[in-house]
Design a protein that fits this description.
Helix content is 20%, strand content 38%. The chain has 388 residues and is an alpha+beta fold. The strands form 6 sheets. Strands 1, 5, 6, 23, 24 and 25 form a 6-stranded antiparallel beta sheet that branches. Strands 8-17-20-19-18-21 form a 6-stranded antiparallel barrel. A 4-stranded antiparallel beta sheet has the order 7-22-27-26, with no helix packed on it.
């Protein structure tokens, strides 16, 4: 199996930097020898500069290759130690030790990975309810007057007075009496009165008048001055715009109640990892406020949009929230284990020299002799990448 050279620091570029520094040292030594001729040291003659990636390209003067690496100085008498092939690179044992270069065999392995992303707690949008009267009126009395107060389903929130509502109740009461009075008459008069009563009743229902109030109105015939609005769900009052005595218009949201028994974690997953996210996958969530607790939920939705600034895609995880420990806007850390289907040929990520246009690894042929090879990369894990 071929060995892939891995520089512990800055992948393969560490060697080029070390080589450049080594050449500079040699130049300084030669200059010093010229200045003190009595030293007796032999001055090396510079032949040319060769391509650092082993390509058959030389230059009489220092220059850089397209990847920004400095060409390597070649001195007289070094030809015997040059690699057998122009594409090969020779690194002395001393430099290998100084640079901390190590080798690792490319091998088959499953690229299991844990996708990590930062996120935030948000209320379940399907469990948020707005209480908005459908008629004009005035807030007569508040039963719940504090934001953040827990309420139960059916609990009275506030009472309103509306002249329009009172008029509609009286209209229905009169129509109901008329139906009763014309019960024996029959004919077109009874039919018309019946239609009027049904229209008045439907108008009240459209205004969210409860069945209980409608029955009481039908029984007594007396219109109630105020109407009580109740919470449609058990939850927390997250917004309260109602103020006692204020006037409101149709459709104005006076209260908002959120059921926080189940919440969302919306995490920003990096673009390169989004293909690994599957609906229904089990995710682990940690909250800064509870470092000793771990929450689990399932991926329910991957949003169809990407943030062009952060290059992330929002991913939604649903979490049960017993005890209401999780509160909207809390910071969360998401961990999603991803298992690879098949084993693939991999190399260490630190072995890859990436110029932005191509990727290269250094393959060890024998001790101290390497050959650069261009590779194409695939899936990644924490420390390894697929070589395709």
């Amino acid at each position: 199996m071929a060995m892939v050279a891995v520089a512990v620091i800055a992948a393969g570029s560490g060697y080029w930097l070390g080589h450049q520094q080594g050449d500079g040292g040699a130049a300084v030594t030669s200059s010093a020898a010229n200045a003190s001729g009595e030293s007796g040291k032999k001055v090396r003659k510079l032949l040319h500069y060769r391509n650092p990636m082993g390509l058959p390209d030389t230059s009489p003067t220092p220059k850089k290759d397209p990847m920004g690496m400095d060409y390597i100085a070649v001195y007289e008498g070094e030809d015997e130690g040059e690699p057998a092939s122009a594409n090969q690179i020779k690194i002395s044992t001393e430099k290998i030790q100084k640079l901390g270069v190590r080798t690792e065999a490319a091998q088959l392995r499953s690229l299991d990975k844990t996708v990590r992303a930062a996120g935030r707690i948000e209320p379940d949008e399907r469990r948020i309810y707005a209480i908005s009267p459908k008629f004009e009126g005035y807030v007569e009395r508040l039963h719940v007057n504090v934001t953040g107060q827990p309420v139960s389903k059916g609990q009275a929130l506030f009472e309103v007075y509306s002249p329009e509502l009172v008029s509609a109740q009286r209209e229905y009461a009169i129509a109901a009496e008329g139906v009763e009075a014309l019960k024996e008459a029959g004919g077109q008069a009874q039919t018309g009165m019946q239609q009027l009563a049904e229209a008045s009743l439907q108008r009240l229902k459209n205004w969210d008048i409860s069945e209980e109030q409608v029955k009481a109105l039908s029984k007594s015939g007396a219109a109630k001055r105020t109407l009580t609005f109740r919470s449609p769900v058990s939850g927390i009052v997250t917004e309260k715009k109602a103020i006692q005595g204020m006037r409101f218009m149709p459709g104005e949201a006076l209260y908002q109640v959120a059921d926080l028994s189940s919440v969302w974690v919306v995490a920003d997953v990096f673009e390169q990892d989004i293909g690994l996210i599957k609906l229904g996958a089990l995710a682990k969530v940690r909250i800064n406020a509870y470092p000793d607790k771990q929450f689990e939920g399932k991926v329910s939705y991957v949003y169809p949009t990407l943030n062009a600034t952060t290059r992330t895609v929002p991913v939604r995880v649903e979490l049960a929230n017993p005890g209401l420990l999780l509160k909207p806007a809390m910071f969360a850390q998401l961990e999603l284990p991803v298992s690879a289907k098949n084993a693939v040929v991999t190399v260490p990520i630190s072995a890859v020299i990436d110029s932005g246009t191509r990727q290269i690894v250094l393959v060890q042929l024998v001790e101290g002799r390497f050959e650069p090879r261009e590779v194409k990369l695939g899936a990644r894990s924490e420390n390894h990448v697929q070589r395709t």
